[in-house]
Amino acid sequence: MSPITFIRLIGISLTLCVGLMQVVPTAQPAGGATKAKVRLNQIIEQFEQDKPAYMNEHWQFISLEHTLLLDNYTKAMASLRPTDGAVRPKLTPIVRIAQSADEEFKTVIKQVLDDGAFGIILPDVKTKEEVMKLVSAMRYPQQPGSKFPRPEGIRGWAPTGATRMMGGISNLEHHLKADLWPLNPDGELLAIVMIETREAIKNIEEILKVPGLGGAIIGPADLSLALGTGNPAPVTTAPAVEAATATVAKACVALKKLCGTFEVTDVGARVAQGFRLIPRASK
Questions:
Q1: pLDDT digits (tens, 9 = 90+) for 91-111
Q2: Can you give the pTM of this predicted structure?
Q3: How far apart are CA 101 and CA 99, in angstroms?
């Protein structure tokens, strides 16, 4: 066999091998199962499995409302960033901003989301109009062909910290994931409102029906004061507070929204009541 013929045969063999590699299907898991979708937001992951999400087990609560210690915020966010090739933060970072719903909060929401927060808690929400502002501030402007064009977003683009918190994904991947659940089922961000007044309890169904809102969390101390059960300190287990808490829980369950309360003396009882966002450990 001449050297030229040998070289030609080698070329034909390589071509056949490449062709086979292209047509042979990728091996599938046993039983034809497909790979499970990986949620970046552990709160949403738990809720979709009808399980509670516990603070310090699935998410971390970072509050700016009652403190001036911004170093604590910075350290908390840095401690949650993915390491060793992980695709999601160690715990889902949820930030309660300092501004109340009747204040200007657009800028701080943009900054906190750009830094990598997966959820915003807005204090002292009373009306659906305030929720609409929250939702709009958390969404990017929707592009042509969007499946979920409304409510329109106004968030500006600069997600440097956010992409790192999502395991270093590309800007395109970030844009696809940085939307509000459950409005966008593939979204990984949560808009959460605090329910702390009589007006909020009265408007709870209208509040929860705003597209893009992920859930509500009760502030039992301020709710106690608003309902007149403080003597003068808040009484977070007073009958009036418990009745209002039950109203919120019932509405959240009916509308399939996350529900939480900072009054969780009995975790099992709260879970049975419909609460899935639990601001304490399971034990």
A1: 999 999 999 999 999 999 999
A2: 0.86
A3: 7
